[in-house]
Write a structure and sequence with these properties.
The chain is built from six helices and six strands, in the order E-H-E-H-E-H-E-H-E-H-E-H. By secondary structure, it is α/β, with parallel strands linked by helices. It is globular and about 40 Å long. Helix content is 34%, strand content 16%. The chain has a four-stranded parallel sheet. A two-stranded parallel ribbon has the order 5-6. The chain has helices spanning 8-13, 28-35, 49-61, 86-91, 104-107, 121-127; strands at 2-4, 19-21, 42-46, 68-73, 99-100, 117-118.
Length: 131
């Protein structure tokens, strides 16, 4: 598993194959703990040595530091993510599969899309085959 902490724009322009974009933000540790299981090794990619150092300190605070196999800076990467056009979704919601990754309490009483599939983020990897 590769966790890329670069901002969304940089990630979409080029990211590592099979990596996930978990941007540095207030809930980084919460999201990391939802995606990476205790004891599961992972790689950490960032935009600078300073960002990596900051994230490693935060990762250590939740006890995941020994799981980081390697931390490295990414400047260019081969995979591209297409630009999502929200207008297409609004025009034809049935053409999309929407996965709502909020937990049960976040979703309670606030369904955003009637036909969305509800899979809490912590359960997503178990329910979806990762290639």
């Amino acid at each position: 598993m590769i966790v890329e902490a670069r901002d969304e724009k940089a990630f979409k322009q080029g990211h590592l194959p099979h990596s996930i974009n978990l941007m540095e933000g207030a809930k980084f540790e919460t999201w990391l703990g939802s995606i990476i299981q205790p004891g599961e090794p992972f790689y950490l990619a960032g935009s600078s040595k300073e960002q990596l150092q900051n994230l490693l300190e935060r990762i250590a605070a939740i006890g995941y530091e020994p799981q980081v196999k390697e931390a490295f800076v990414v400047q260019e990467a081969p995979e591209k993510s297409p630009h999502f056009k929200a207008a297409q979704l609004r025009e034809n919601e049935d053409a999309f599969t929407i996965v709502d990754v909020r937990n049960h309490s976040e979703r309670a009483g606030q369904v955003l899309f009637d036909k969305s599939l509800h899979i809490p983020l912590g359960d997503l990897r178990e329910r979806v085959k990762v290639i």
